[in-house]
Amino acid sequence: MLERFAKHTIQTFGGALIVLGILLITVGLIGIYSSKLRAYCPAGGCLPYSLPAQNWLLVASLLSGIALVIVGIVLLNVAREMKSKRDTDEANAQDARAN
Known about the structure:
single chain, mainly alpha, 81% helix, rod-shaped
C-alpha cells in the first residue's frame, strides 16, 4: 500500500514541477521578448541600460523553468517504472506456477 502512495506522490510532484516549469518558461520568454520591444528613448538618444538584473531575472526564470520541466519528466518516468507490491507478487506467483 505504501508503494502505491509513493508512486502517486512522485507522479503528482512530477506533474506539478512540469506545470510550474512551463509557467516559468512562459514568464521568461514573454519578459525577454517584451524587454526587447521597449524603446522609451528621448529624441537625444537612449540612456545606457542601467538595470542588467532585469534581464538576468528573466533568463534565470527561463532556465529554471527548463530545469523544472526536465526534473518533472524524470520523476514521471521514475514513477512509471515503479511496480507495486501486488504486481511483483503476482509475477512471482506466475513464475512459481510455471516452474
